[in-house]
Amino acid sequence: MEEDCSAEALTELRERQPSALELLQVAAGSGLAAYAVWALLLQPGFRRVPLRLQVPYVGASARQVEHVLLLLRGRPGKLVDLGSGDGRIVLAAHKCGLRPAVGYELNPWLVRLAWLHAWRAGCASSVSYRRENLWKVSLRDCYNVSVFLAPSVLPLLEDKLQTELPVGARVVSGRFPLPTWQPVAVVGEGLDRVWAYDVHSGGPAEQAVPGPSSASVPGAPAAQAD
Ligand SMILES: C[S@@+](CC[C@H](N)C(=O)[O-])C[C@H]1O[C@@H](n2cnc3c(N)ncnc32)[C@H](O)[C@@H]1O
To answer: Compositional bias (Low complexity) at which positions (predicted)?
Structure first.
């Protein structure tokens, strides 16, 4: 008898259509959960950064990291990743011999995650992740700079790089090119594409443009198909 009742109740529950109020409650609950994730995990650190300069976290693809390293291969001097996320580029650069390798990241959770990755890789004492606003750090001694930021902030970034980087520095930009500088090399296709720019005394914009989508790096494989 009891079994009949619970089977009946189950069938009734399965067949019943949710009411508009229930749907509304589910939608509100999901919205609240999404807001909580955003406020607790993604937003910290950005409170003092103007909205137009806020760039969300998206990790570089494995292929993109490979391309960044290819374009920085064999270069001496310090590497910095501006907006280092979970630290994957800094860690990979350190493993390839670029030292010191430093990441600047605003989101404290990502900084912690980066340290965790470095610790697991046995590199915690060799790399550096700093919770700092990339717009406020000095780049005067940086000869290798990696960026993977939103196109909307790149014009402003160009100005900062132009003003602060020493002659001889190289900038590699993942997924989005710097808007007015002329690249010296381009590797990869689509989302994995990375552009390299060198700072000469005449300024980076003075340099020759490589052929269209030539993906040319001396000694490197040509454009790699996805
Ligand atoms: C598109 S993600 C790239 C992450 C990492 N560089 C990678 O390639 O995997 C951009 C990162 O920049 C960080 N970021 C955005 N604005 C920043 C700022 N003003 N100072 C420091 N980090 C910032 C974001 O938190 C995010 O982690």
So the answer is: 207-226
